[in-house]
Amino acid sequence: MMRAGNLRMLGEYAQASQTFEAPAHALGEGPLTLPRPCRGGTRILLAHHALAADAIAPLGDTIALRHYADTLELGCSRSF
Fold first, then answer.
1. Residue among 55, 29, 24 nearest 42 (CA)
2. Cβ–Cβ under 8 Å, residues 21 and 48
3. End-to-end CA distance of the chain
4. What is the pLDDT of residues 9-59, one digit of tens each?
């Protein structure tokens, strides 16, 4: 988390976004499903996606931001 935050502050937005998002996905994981099978998994995934979206926003990549927004909308609407 600290490394990703530092990358963001240094202007390495794409790398920061990838670093924020990486812990939320298992290696070799298939398509994203919600809710996540493990306890707290959905909240972890959504928190990392929100951080990744915030990190990539300065690039103006609206397609990537739309992906994050759609995931957050779907997941958060099912969360308390």
1. 24
2. yes
3. 24
4. 999 999 998 898 887 766 566 666 666 656 567 788 888 889 999 999 999
Rounded Cα gap, residues 53 and 17, in angstroms: 7
Report CA-CA distances (Å) from 24 to 10, 11, 53, 60: 23, 22, 13, 23
Contact 53, 65 (CB under 8 A): yes
Structure tokens at 55: 């990190």
pTM of the model: 0.73
> What is the rounded CA–CA span in Å between residue 36 and residue 39?
8
Give the distance, in angstroms, between the CA of residue 78 and the centroid of all CA atoms in the same chain: 17
